Every structure is written in C-alpha cells, then in structure tokens.
Amino acid sequence: MSATMRDHILKSRYLLPGEETFSDLCRRVADAVGRDETEREVFFRMLERCRFLPNSPALMNAGTASSQLAACFVLPVGSTVPEIFESMKQGAVIQVSGG
Questions:
Q1: CA angle at residue 39 from 37 to 43, to 5 degrees?
Q2: How many structural domains comprise the chain?
Q3: Which of 35, 13, 11 minimizes the C-alpha distance to 21?
Q4: Of the candidates 30, 42, 65, 73, which lies 20 to 30 Å from 81 by C-alpha distance?
C-alpha cells in the first residue's frame, strides 16, 4: 500500500478533528482504554509499533462520546413475541450506539 493511500485511509476513516498523525490516533486510543499511566504507555507503544491493532470501531470510537468499541454482537432471540421484540429493541440500542 502506498503512503498516499495509507494517509488517505487514516485521515478519512480514523483521525478525529485535531488529530494529524497515526501517533495522535494511538495516543487517543491508549488513553481511552488504559487503566493507569503505565498501562496507557505500554498500550501506546504497542499500537504505535503496530504490534497490536484493535478493530476499526475501537480505533474510530475510543476516546469519543460513542465509545462503542465492539465490532460484533450476538443477541439471543426467544420464541415468544415479547422475547422477539426484546431482541429487536436490544438490536436498535446497539445500532444507535454505532454498532
């Protein structure tokens, strides 16, 4: 992948306003999910070195109001009408949150 294509994807999909670099993205994600300063720094280094990269929702949403970090959801669907509609309600809530 060319640097131009990589930069376009980064800017169009992952960087938030005020972020300019991949390191900015890594800092936001690490700060959002790390429990303390040590964990945030370790996670930041892993991200920045591409030793670990989370899924797209985590890269896009960590540190934002959405904070929806999951990419996949499994909902139980019961066999009664109320149970079916409860699953539909849960699906709608997930959809609204960015899932």
A1: 120
A2: 2
A3: 11
A4: 73
